What we know:
Elements lengths: L1 E4 L7 E11 L28 E2 L8 E13 L5 E12 L2 E8 L8 E8 L2 E14 H4 L9 E14 L15 E10 L5 E10 L2 E4 L4 E5 L2 E11 L4 E8 L6 E8 L5 E8 L4 E8 L2
Parallel strand pairs: 3-7
Antiparallel strand pairs: 1-2, 2-4, 4-5, 5-8, 6-7, 8-9, 9-10, 10-11, 11-14, 12-13, 13-16, 14-15, 15-18, 16-17
Amino acid sequence: HVNFKIDPKGRDLIRASITRSYRAPDLSRLMARPSISTAYPIDKPNPEISPDRVGNPALQPELSLGMDLAFEKYFTPGGVFSVGVFRRDIKGLVRNALSFGPVPWASAPRWVSRPVNLDHATSSGLEMEVKGRLTELWPQLQAPVGLSLRSALSFYRSKVDGIPGPDNRLESQQPWSWTAGFDHQWAGSPLGFGGNLAFTPQYGVQQTVEQHFEQMRTRNVDVYMTWAFSREAILRASVNNLWPSDTVNRTTLTDVSGLLQGSFNRSTVHPNFNVNLTLKF
């Protein structure tokens, strides 16, 4: 890890690092005890879209070599802008694979999903963030002194070898994401308030040669308000998921006969209200 100051008297700097990481499999992925698809009795075959699941005691850890480069620009007296790029080379990426055949827990052949190590994958990204008081970020603007802003925008790309494109990316890695928020402390008043917004787009992941997963876009909005009775007593009221969007995803699979199978999942998200009183002694 190396930090380089552009001006020895200033705070702006460049960060560079090379890392090598070791990621052991979760214990559940190593256990050979099966989780049976209860929708289909064990005396009959199950479809590919609804396999039994079992661990793999021979699973190996993922090994990753990473390179990071970032630039940080500091404003007077406290705002900061940062931009960074990274790349990861992953060996032994863990991904679930389907197989069909006789199994010891059923009297009929079954489709089974078990984790395996793939050969190689790469991941890269660009991450940008800016945060600080508005008067620090934009001195020419006659803005309230107590208003702070923050925003982050990231772009990600990945490729898993042996899986057909164009969606042969890492699982749970969206192509981009955006977050923004603000905090404001009213001058001369015990009132403070703020909020956060997070958004990720719809994207797909080619999990195997036959199976494709699609995650719909997500949106999360949180707001809060505080009232300071004193330095020792602060009341905070917040609403999470103020503008909720359901979590929706679907999986499609082309079976060995060429037929298309699919599943659809929707999780309803509701606003969550919280009121807390903090007392310091």
